[in-house]
Design a protein that fits this description.
13 strands, 352 residues, five-stranded mixed β-sheet, D-Maltodextrin-Binding Protein, domain 2, alpha/beta, 2 domains, 12 helices
């Protein structure tokens, strides 16, 4: 599908043009309008920048927000919350937040909600994640797992039926299977279910769910029989409490690592991470524009430090160009995309 995008010029102090964003199926659109330009208050005014959304992207955004505010001269109060990618888009498309952290691309239904509220968005990829399947370190039987076995565990038909490790692989012990995973408002939930089960949001319900990945980490770390999934940064920060399973999608078992993501070997659980910026807010709030410029400049080092895989130098350069030229819309046509590599993302950005 193709996404048609026009330009919204940010630096000149007024919105020259709001773009339209359509898919070939016409499932959702970003319609044109000429919004009123609000008068920016004097430079001494403290501006609140509201950010919500993905717990996976949270460590990146929170770290950059702290560094930004530590400068002391930015006149901004940056507040970062967690409500999951889907929960975050509900607020973002209602115009309640300036930025949404997202662990998947915006979906058609969310685009429609944004359109109804005349919220125009700028899509900025910021990192790659190796979605990690982890167990308790005292689990001595599981070192790897196939996508088929994960599906057997997590598909809706497994609810109340697949309750022991032995039912998943006969060589594993007859011990209770305790599952931990993303809440249904999480982009991680959307991505994992589509990649593993074959249909987004198709999952058993009898598991411990949370929008906060740290809650999942703690649950797994305290239960020998547990298995769960979350963003790689949470595994890397808690390696003393967890054991990552190598994922076998048909070409051998591969561990979640920066190198396996870069080489497109960790599939299908490698995925891009995003921030979505309210274009009108960026126009009317100099503090927001300054923060996003700062975010893009700091992302390469911060992404690595918190445990994710940075984009290439060209990738961040394109983010900077797209943001400052006001490229409104999405290159994903309102759909999630599996098995996307760093190179493929770069090619999409370059054509945007």
């Amino acid at each position: 599908m193709k996404t048609i995008v026009k330009k919204l010029v940010l630096p000149l102090g007024m919105l020259v043009l709001i773009t339209s964003c359509t898919t070939e199926s016409n499932t959702s659109t970003q319609t044109e309008e000429s919004p009123k330009v609000t008068q920016v208050k004097n430079s001494q005014t403290i501006t609140t920048v509201k950010i919500d959304g993905s717990s996976t992207v949270y460590p990146i955004t929170q770290a950059i927000a702290k560094e930004f505010q530590a400068q002391g001269n930015n006149k901004a109060d940056v507040r970062v919350a967690i409500s999951g990618t889907s929960g975050g888009f509900e607020k973002f498309c209602a115009g309640e937040t300036d930025i949404n952290n997202a662990s998947r691309p915006i979906l058609s239904a969310e685009m429609e909600d944004c359109n109804k509220n005349t919220v125009r968005f700028i899509e900025l990829p910021v990192a790659f994640d190796a979605l990690t399947v982890a167990v308790n370190p005292e689990n001595t039987w599981a070192k790897d797992i196939t996508i088929a076995e994960l599906k057997k565990m997590w598909q809706p038909a497994a609810e109340g039926k697949i309750t022991t490790w032995k039912q998943v692989r006969t060589s594993w012990p007859n011990r209770p299977l305790k599952l931990f995973g993303a809440d249904k408002k999480s982009g991680t939930f959307d991505y994992f279910t589509e990649a593993v089960v074959g249909k987004s949001r198709a999952s058993r319900n009898d598991y411990t769910a949370s929008e906060d990945d740290q809650v999942l980490v703690e649950g797994i770390s305290k239960d020998t029989d547990a298995l769960g999934y979350f963003g790689f940064a949470y595994y890397e920060q808690n390696q003393d409490k967890l054991k990552a399973l190598a994922i076998d999608s048909g070409s051998g078992a591969v561990l979640p690592e920066r190198q396996t993501v870069e080489k497109a070997q960790y599939q299908p659980l490698s995925r891009p991470l995003f921030i979505y910026v309210n274009a009108k807010s960026a126009q009317n709030k100099p503090a927001l524009k300054n923060f996003v410029d700062f975010y893009i400049s700091k992302a390469p080092t911060t992404v690595s430090s918190v445990g994710y895989v940075p984009l290439s130098e060209e990738g961040y350069h394109l983010d900077n160009v797209h943001f400052n030229r006001g490229k409104v819309g999405t290159v994903f046509a309102g759909e999630a995309q599996l098995n996307l590599t760093l190179g493929e993302l770069l090619r999409k950005q370059a054509k945007f």
